[in-house]
Write a structure and sequence with these properties.
The protein starts with 9 loop residues before the first helix and ends with a helix. The chain has helices spanning 10-23, 27-39, 41-68, 75-89, 92-99, 105-111. 76% of the residues lie in helices and 0% in strands. The protein is built from six helices and no strands. By secondary structure, it is mainly α. The chain has two domains: 1-69; 74-112, no CATH class.
């Protein structure tokens, strides 16, 4: 392992030593970590850009999905549908019309 000599402000070194002591590490280890992050910065930047692009893509997919979905029925249309269903629910003629359709088995038997 190589040694590196750098010049830093005394107050900066003092504050850094206090902080690394609170973190349970050494100033050398922290400088090594920071240099490692600096060297690998292109990988971190690529990862960050990939995550941002993925988030944008997911947002575009969600927007497209919402745009293609039918709007929820209005309260008026629900009330009309419910009223209509209620009117025809007990209408025996409506039931007969659904049971006997053109070409149904009942009509075929009558024709014979």
């Amino acid at each position: 392992m190589s040694n590196l000599t750098i010049s830093l402000d005394d107050e900066l070194i003092k504050q850094a030593r206090i902080r690394v002591a609170q973190q349970g590490t050494s100033l050398s280890a922290k400088v090594r970590e920071l240099l490692q992050h600096y060297v690998n910065g292109t990988d971190d930047a690529t990862k960050r850009l990939r995550e941002e692009d993925t988030a944008k893509l997911m947002q575009a997919i969600e927007s497209a999905t919402l745009a293609t979905q039918a709007p929820p029925p209005s309260a008026q249309s629900l009330a009309k549908a419910t009223l209509r269903e209620g009117l025809y629910a007990d209408d025996f003629r409506a039931k007969d019309r659904t049971l006997i359709s053109p070409g149904s088995a009942a009509e075929q038997q009558e024709a014979q």
